[in-house]
UniProtKB/TrEMBL annotation:
Pfam families in alphabetical order: ATP-synt_B
Broad class of the protein's primary localization: membrane
GO cellular-component term (any): plasma membrane
InterPro entries from the UniProt entry: ATP_synth_b/b'su_bac/chlpt, ATP_synthase_B_chain
Annotated GO MF terms: proton-transporting ATP synthase activity, rotational mechanism; proton-transporting ATPase activity, rotational mechanism
Annotated keywords: ATP synthesis, Cell membrane, CF(0), Coiled coil, Hydrogen ion transport, Ion transport, Membrane, Transmembrane, Transmembrane helix, Transport
Protein name: ATP synthase subunit b
Membrane topology (UniProt): Single-pass membrane protein
CDD domains: ATP-synt_Fo_b
Highest taxon above the source species: Bacteria
Sections of the chain in a coiled coil: 36-77
Role according to the record: F(1)F(0) ATP synthase produces ATP from ADP in the presence of a proton or sodium gradient. F-type ATPases consist of two structural domains, F(1) containing the extramembraneous catalytic core and F(0) containing the membrane proton channel, linked together by a central stalk and a peripheral stalk. During catalysis, ATP synthesis in the catalytic domain of F(1) is coupled via a rotary mechanism of the central stalk subunits to proton translocation.
Length: 160
């Protein structure tokens, strides 16, 4: 009856025949095809996700650049506004100082004129009193009184 190797080969061929008859190769091929399809679908999905991520990244980069440009514009406008406010504040301060200086000068001029008027009035009063004493000592009759009254009224009229 033959050797053991021959029987192993015959059993192997019969086994392979049963495996082919049952359809195991089709099932293995089908399972491998399904797995390949699933892997292909996952790769396509991953590729789509990658493209979407790249689009999002590009969009965020663009938005970031726009935001940086907007920030630069805002900062530049703020600097210009601050410079304008500083110039306006300086001008207002100078105007305030000028008004205060002018008001002080006017007060000083008014005080000077009042002091001069007071000095003139005091001098006039002193001159009138001195003239009254001198004239009353020299002239004792009614003529002295009339001259004195007329002189006093003239002095007061000229001083006021």
């Amino acid at each position: 009856m033959g050797s053991a190797e021959l029987w192993v080969a015959v059993a192997f061929v019969i086994f392979l025949g049963i495996v082919v008859y049952v359809g195991v190769p089709k099932k293995i091929t089908g399972a491998l095809d399904q797995r390949a399809a699933r892997i292909k679908a996952e790769l396509d999905h991953a590729r789509a996700l990658r493209e979407e991520a790249q689009k999002l990244l590009a969009e965020y980069k663009r938005k970031r650049e726009e935001a940086e440009q907007d920030a630069k514009v805002i900062v530049e406008n703020a600097r210009k506004d601050a410079a304008g406010f500083a110039l306006a504040a300086k001008a207002k301060a100078e105007e305030f100082v000028a008004r205060r200086t002018k008001a002080a000068e006017q007060k000083i001029a008014l005080a000077e004129s009042q002091a001069i008027a007071e000095v003139r009035a005091a001098a006039a009063d002193a001159a009138v009193a001195a003239a009254e004493r001198v004239l009353s000592a020299q002239v004792k009759d009614g003529l002295g009184d009339s001259l004195f009254e007329r002189g006093v009224s003239e002095v007061r009229a000229k001083l006021n």
